Amino acid sequence: NYVLSLIDQLLKKNELSSGERFAVMLINLNRFRSVNESLGYQTGDRVIKHLAKRLRELSSPGETVGHFGADKFVMVLPSVTSEATAIGRAEAVAHCISEAIVFKGRTLYTSASIGLVFHNPNHLKAEEVLRDADIAMYHAKDNRRSWSVFDRSMHARAVMRQQMETDLRYAIVCNELQLFYQPIVNLSTMQLHGFEALLRWQHPRKGMIQ
Description:
Number of helices: 6
Helix content: 40-55%
Largest sheet: 5 strands, mixed
């Protein structure tokens, strides 16, 4: 993949030169599946090609744009002077994608969730840079924002969430989930009105999780 190769080259270049930074944007088209399902894959392909052309025209000299899967693009900014400059580029990309697309008299609209990551010394491989851009992209999507800048706490939360999902699978197999009934009482009459069913997790390391 050309984009991965380019990012690896930039990582090696930054090892040799201090002070230079590059940034990567992972651009995900929102609800693009509905375009394929309602208008067909042929129209979906045309939308992708049209947006690819827009992004190429938007890109500055030295920047690289690549199609990275069905509904994703990658933009590589090889030299970033400031975080504000890169954020400005992300906002320009979001605006570019949100503009109307006209095909055979039909007007379509789409939008993007963009993950922006700045190179840092912890990045050793291109896959790590794209992983962090992907995390930031989903953070933007979950928070209904056009873009989000990656920070290390996002990765920590992603790792914790993955571990929690794994632990929950074991919890089901090992019968670590326990059912409790909590009474519902009318405080004015002190009469019992019912019960609330609660599922609690007796975690082997973290104790009771409510």
